[in-house]
Amino acid sequence: MMEPKADGHQPTQHELQNQQQQQQQQPQQSGSAGTAATAAAASILTVPPMQNGAPPVRKHHSRPGSLSESPLQTPGGQRAGLPRRSPSERRMLEQYVMEHGGDKPFYSVLVANNGLAAVKFMRSVRSWASQALGNARAVSLLAMATPNDMRVSAEHIALADQFVEVPGGSNNNNYANVSLIVQLAERAGVDAVWPGWGHASENPELPAALAQRGIRFLGPHAAAMAALGDKVGSTILAQAAGVPTLPWSGSGVAISFEECEGDIPPELYAKACITDVEDALVRCRNIGYPCMLKASAGGGGKGIRKVNSDDEVRVLFRAVAGEVPGSPIFAMKLAPTSRHLEVQLLCDMHGNVASLFSRDCSVQRRHQKIMEEGPVTAASKEVLAKMEQRARALAKSVHYVGAATAEFLYCVEEQTYNFLELNPRLQVEHPVTEGITGVNIPSCQLLVGMGVPLWRIPSIRALYGKDPNGTDAFDPDTTPQKYPDSHVVAVRITSEDAAAGFKPTAGRIDELHFRPTPEVWGYFSAKSGGGIHEYSDSQFGHLFARGPNREAALRSLVVALRDVVVRGEIRTIVDYASDMLQNSDVINNQLHTGWLDARIAQCVIGPGSTPPWHLAVIAGAVVRAFEHISAQSAAYLGFLTKGHMPPDNVAMSFSDALIISGKRYPVQVQRRSPTAFCVTLNGCSSVEVTTRKMAGGAFLMQVDGSSHIVHVEEETGGTRLAIDASTCLLEAEADPSKLVSASPGKLVRYLAPPGSHIDKGNPYAEVEVMKMLMPLLAPAAGVLCFVAPEGAVLGAGDLIARLELDDPKAVVRAEPFKGGFPDLGPPVVPSQRVDSRLAAAVDAARNVLAGYLQPLDWVMEELVGCLDSPALALLQWNSQLAVARSRLPQNLVTQLEESVKEHTADVLMWQQQLELEEAAAEEGKPTPAVGAIHHVKVSEFPAAVLLQEMQAALQETPAEERNALLGHLEPLMQLASQHLGGRETYARSVVGGLLDAFLDVEEKFKLTAESGSDKPTTEQEAVDAMRKVGGVPAHRIHGQQQGLDRVGEWLY
């Protein structure tokens, strides 16, 4: 018998009948909406404890084997294998539930879902428990985890209090396996099961089987789920409840829930269904094209096709039937420019139904939502109020319990709405409603499941203008609500390639970063170091932005999307979504359900989705050159480490032909230094680039005065470059005779018979990738020879079929690019100071000796010109003094500045005369001043005086402070010492250092040759030997000797 509620409520006759239906009803499987539970539910009672049938081994327990699961108890009376809660924590939860009119506290809940659904529920329950009970973990949450989930470090596993391993693979092995879910719930002894969305959330067998075991289901009872979860059945019931519908194959077919008690008579149900292709043709003609063919059990883009003609019906009817085998099929009139509006419903066990306003989900691709917002602004408040009232009436008519979503198609021009379907579960986009109402919907599901009436839930009371802590009852159906004072816009983050028609992708996630703000929040089911596996849903994130109005919310969301970073093997729609939200149609709210599909069909890609072509070419060339030279160096050192003579030298140049977007770019790359590269296109256009490889494997690249972060991923079709927030593919040479899988998935069926001829662009097979069905198109005309069988599980790069080409010569090759780079500047702003230029020239000369390829003429001209400049010593001195000034005594600084005052004036006069001559030469107008530069007398840099003053200051400094002052003066004293002999002496010391480096290499090679051994004997000799080709130093081969000879001529 049903016990009275804690608030004194006595069970009604309907409630008693409903409980009896849940415990005893086992309807026969049929095409009707009454399939609340199948006869297989009885078999769930005797689920074996393990897959192999062997009884589990448990320590400290000895009991006979059982055909059914029963939870073990700890000595304290709690369930074994779940987190322990103290008696005070349990009493706190029990007291809260009873004080709010509930009848059964839930100490533990099995989350029968994964991904974003599980993450959102856990975070919401934790938030509610923390605020209401002061303990975020008052309710233990048990997660299910497949090996696939654990391999990618799924976030829901880390959030749970406990998890249990379940088989991997497709969801019929785990999250959609009703028998397994019930077994786990019974074994763990949980109080309730939360189904989420997708998987088993709309399978009426689950609530039926749980009710038989006394475990509550956080959703509707089996009869209501069966009636409303079935698209045909729910539309029949909606028509009976007076909810308007579009013309469809069941127009006029109606029966109320009370009349049939949720079990629609099969003969009545059959009147709304299509039996075969001929029947489909008749029904579609009667309705009028365009129509939608739908499978009643379909969803998520499966089992739904648009048809515009009889010919399309003949082809696509079979596709719909094949995607959802055994499902009833119906046809419905297509409303191409309508809005997709939703009403969020929340119903309790006491007959109360609340509607939490509405959402607009019109932006969809392949009948799956991408953008959602609320409250609805496309319809008037009066229309929305009627729509919400009809939705509440439909839920009441089936005695619904839990969260539900009533979906409608709204025609803006006619201001009319028609029923689409009612989803008997929570929807992905429910946080939109949370954002405009302040209601934590998953926590309400939990409270409703514990028997709490809606009018006792604090957030619901606040929504209706009541005291959140009050106890007075009210009817949500007739009590006015507080209208939202804000607007929320949401966008889904999916692992899809927007540039390839939203093709799903799976793989590793190296970095995931999102910056929440007071206006923007989000949920992610993955994290850095994790990934998206091939059996998961493509959606792994959801962002929400709230503002005082729609425009403000859109702006905030665009800003937030620009800061989202997702890097790894997967592709995402982040950049596409950011561009889409800035489209004028979105901003002006001129949207409909076909808007995004039309945009995709037109191949509209945002300007930031792909990098500029020259940047892609430069990045690709440098990355490949870097990796090629690094691999050569590693191989060379590997030979030396093993004591073997390497077969060849390490070349500091690299050539390749990059294919990007169907064009071939011939490039040559020279490595100037460890961080500098020169990229030449078509042998005529060059650009300088600096590149550093970062710790995480990315490249920090500077081109044309801008810096870029470049990430590299190898794919089946080539090398993927992620340049800042945009991506491009360095395409591999494709072989059109081999048809391979671009990503992991399942080969669902052939679309062309084996051995048949197929034209270019026609579909030859259909694959399922992350729950989406995708056609594969032939890249050329030819005869098909399938290799993989239908139903085969495919990996990335797996061969699906071979194609005997009609004309191998007709295969389209990449078009050669004939031009050059645009006008590009240096990678960084170069300094024109003589001291900085000399440092760069000396560094370039040392790189020459190290084997890198530098322009020798430029190196020598810079060395000679800078060393001959009268301003060099002064600029070097001023730079060093600026560093030490704040640490030196002020009187010493004044004294040093006074000592260089005369020399400074001479240098300034020389500089002014030089600038006059350079300006006159540029204008081509000689003046009497031209040539005067050679007659300007510049005093010598007072190095000796400065050195004497610094030594005197040291002598006058107390002994205890002398070492500190010496540390600050040492760079200045060293510089002054280098300039003691004047410009010529300093120049000799600089070039002498280069000569010493040159001779050091020569002498080591000489010693190695004289020893008669090819094997280097020290680490230094091993490094030097890398510069050798056939026993000759690399710097002689590349012409560095000629450059050093020119320096010698200048000196002597």
UniProtKB/TrEMBL annotation:
Biased composition (Polar residues): 65-76
Catalytic reaction annotation: N(6)-biotinyl-L-lysyl-[protein] + hydrogencarbonate + ATP = N(6)-carboxybiotinyl-L-lysyl-[protein] + ADP + phosphate + H(+); hydrogencarbonate + acetyl-CoA + ATP = malonyl-CoA + ADP + phosphate + H(+)
Biotin carboxylation domain segment(s): 105-601
Any Pfam family matching the protein: Biotin_lipoyl
Enzyme class per UniProt: ligase
Domain Lipoyl-binding: 730-804
Enzyme nomenclature, EC number: 6.3.4.14
Name of the protein in question: biotin carboxylase
SUPFAM superfamilies in the record: Glutathione synthetase ATP-binding domain-like, PreATP-grasp domain, Rudiment single hybrid motif, Single hybrid motif
Composition bias, Low complexity: 10-43
Keywords: ATP-binding, Biotin, Fatty acid biosynthesis, Fatty acid metabolism, Ligase, Lipid biosynthesis, Lipid metabolism, Nucleotide-binding
InterPro entries tied to this protein: ACCA, ACCA_BT, AcCoA_COase_cen, ATP-grasp, ATP_grasp_subdomain_1, BC-like_N, Biotin_carboxylation_dom, Biotin_COase_C
Native source species: Dunaliella salina
SMART domains in UniProt: Biotin_carb_C (SM00878)
Cofactor: biotin
Residues annotated as domain ATP-grasp: 258-450
Region of interest called Disordered, as start-end residue ranges on this chain: 1-89
